Amino acid sequence: MKPRLNVHISHKLSEKVELISKRPGVTKASVVEAALMGFFSKEFDDQRDGALIRRLDRLTRQYDRLERNLTITTETLALFVRFFLTVTPPLPNADQDAARALGKERFEYFTTRLARRLAGGKNMIKDVLEEISAEEGDFFTPEEIDALRAVREGLSVHDGPPDGKMSDEESSQGEAVDE
């Protein structure tokens, strides 16, 4: 005789077990036993481990991006402070009160612009990286770029659409390559 196990499950799960057990030759016990066997199987462990590994990989990539952004921010700030301190002469005592007032006004303007930029979802680091990133045209002639695109698409350099026009799909792919 098999051991008896009494468990409490949700109504929703109970309804599913009831529905499946209405099939010919299927009992509630066999459904629960199959579910438990699947839960304790090595395949289930492998699936769970695979999901954890994928999640850890994603977290690692996010961490790497954060670390890169922090490094860029820190270096930018350090370079700015060094430059500012190097080129800014000290003020005479008579001009310091006016300079403090102007500095306070500029700082308020800065914080207002920063708040507006952050509220709008803009990101200065992304903007700067996009601005300084190299384009294909910086390194290749238009003919070389066309040849590279043809190789990506599996065509020879001289092959092309019969009518010389690209389909909408090819056109959108070309735009994705340009970006």
Walk me through the topology.
Blueprint: H1 11-21, H2 28-40, H3 42-87, H4 96-119, H5 124-132, H6 142-152, H7 168-178
Helix pairs in contact: 1-2
Keywords: Coiled coil
Protein name: CopG family transcriptional regulator
Biased composition (Acidic residues): 169-179
Describe the overall structure.
The chain has 179 residues and is an all-alpha fold. The protein is 70% helix and 0% strand. It contains seven helices and no strands. The longest helix has 46 residues, at 42-87. The N and C termini lie far apart (69 Å).
In short:
With 179 residues, the protein is mostly helical. It has helices spanning 11-21, 28-40, 42-87, 96-119, 124-132, 142-152, 168-178. Helix content is 70%, strand content 0%.
Mean pLDDT: 80
Specify the biggest β-sheet: none
Estimate the strand proportion. Answer: under 5%
Order of helices and strands: HHHHHHH
DSSP strand count: 0
Terminal CA distance reads 69 Å
Q: Given the C-alpha coordinates, what overall shape results?
A: elongated
Return Rg in Å: 32 Å
Coarse structural class: mainly alpha
Uncertain runs: 156-179
What is the count of helical runs? 7
Secondary structure: helix percent: 55-70%
Organism: Hoeflea poritis
Coiled coil: 49-76
Keywords: Coiled coil
Protein name: CopG family transcriptional regulator
